[in-house]
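Supplementary Methods S3. Input chains for the assembly prediction are listed below.
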Amino acid sequence: CKDEPFLAAVPLHKRILETAKKLGITDVPAEVVTFISHATQTRLRTVIEKVTVITQHRMESYKDDEWYEQATDVRAQLKFFEQL
Amino acid sequence: LMCEVGPNKQLLQHVEEMLLQVPDDFIEIMITATCQLTWHHKSNTLEVKDIQLHLECQWNMWIPSFGS
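Predicted structure tokens for the full assembly:
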């Protein structure tokens, strides 16, 4: 496993320090920055994977699936109303 | 990262903006929680162990570090 930082280390370190300072923590080692970068990458990957699954789900057609059958014929119903 | 998930996929712009917001919020929550842990055991140095603990409990996520 190569250790390429996912997020830019310097701005990330700065940001962590800023947030930490508000909570009374003054020392943020470099390994923590790398670790947070890894964690964020993992988190983002999970989110993207979920979104991808949802997208595929949206694209799927259930018309030919044997587990689904037509319950109402909306088109015919609309046509009926038009003729009223 | 997107290429990794699927090379033929495109992101709409507002989806991309939304996804960029994800790490932003994530980092914020993570640091806040970890600092509270650090503060709790009366230290002023952030530790990888504390972040790991937070991630495991709150996000059900295990990220190996160099020490483990």
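The interface with chain B takes residues 7, 12, 15-16, 19-20, 23-29, 31-32, 35-36, 38-45, 47-49, 51-52, 55 of chain A (CB under 8 Å). The CA atoms of residues 37 and 43 of chain A lie 10 Å apart.
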